[in-house]
Amino acid sequence: xxxxxxxxxxxxxxxxxxxxxxxxxxxxxxxxxxxxxxxxxxxxxxxxxxxxxxxxxxxxxxxxxxxxxxxxxxxxxxxxxxxxxxxxxxxxxxxxxxxxxxxxxxxxxxxxxxxxxxxxxxxxxxxxxxxxxx
Length: 134
What we know:
Elements: H1 4-9, E1 14-16, E2 22-24, H2 30-46, H3 63-67, H4 69-72, H5 74-85, H6 89-95, H7 98-127
Antiparallel strand pairs: 1-2
């Protein structure tokens, strides 16, 4: 079976939570993707996550910083999950487990971040004047 976030990207809007409950995740709109991107940008800046200068994608996060990720950024993760599921934060806290967060919410939100970063990097690099002869 594929990972839930990959199934979602392929169009499956019904996600089975670790509790066995199936929920329908609404399609991600630009507004929700942008909010997720903004939240993750703040988190990744605080973690000093390295970004590939050519693609704009996050390349890695140091292990010692990763260990504090959940405790330092629990409210941000909860807010991202609420945006993904189109629910209030209270619903996220009462219905999702750490399995749901690490297998669906985090990979999906990082995919969104990398997609937007890569797209913006590509768009802006197209605007950069090229030296003559290239």
